[in-house]
Amino acid sequence: MVLVGTQCDLRQDVKVLIELARRRESPVPEADAHALAEKVGAVAYLESSALTQKNLKEVFDAAITAGLRHAERRARRERKVRTTADKMRMLSKAWWKKYVCIQ
């Protein structure tokens, strides 16, 4: 998972800051966003802006990389489970052949 902060161009927009102050709110500090990303287990935190195109490529690259890594880990885990089950099956057959005369 990648956590993305959007509309980062509005962080310095005076009108937005005035409106937020009126509601007793403020933009989320970048340090708090990084802490949240770590808390929820995100692999990365990036800020972007569709308006200014800031970090858009980086956001998509990070999402693609995270998705590929997740798929690779899942495939590796499934292979491990499959090979373990196959080994157990083969061991079971070999064990029975030692003690049973009928094949």
Features:
103 residues; mainly alpha; Rossmann fold; two-stranded parallel ribbon; 62% helix; GTP binding; GTP-binding
Count of DSSP-assigned helices: 3
How can the largest sheet be summarized? 2 strands, parallel
What is the level-2 CATH architecture name? 3-Layer(aba) Sandwich
Rg, Å, rounded: 26 Å
Describe this protein's structure.
This protein has three helices and two strands; from the N terminus they run βααβα. The termini are far apart. Strands 1-2 form a two-stranded parallel sheet. It is 62% helix and 8% strand. The model has no long low-confidence stretch (mean pLDDT 84). The protein has one domain (2-99): Rossmann fold (3-Layer(aba) Sandwich). The radius of gyration is 26 Å and the shape is elongated. By secondary structure, the protein is mainly α. It has helices at residues 14-22, 30-40, 56-99, and strands at 2-5, 44-47.
Quick description:
The chain is mostly helical and 103 residues long. It has helices at residues 14-22, 30-40, 56-99; strands at 2-5, 44-47. The mean pLDDT is 84.
Per-chain topology:
Layout: E1 2-5, H1 14-22, H2 30-40, E2 44-47, H3 56-99
Parallel strand pairs: 1-2
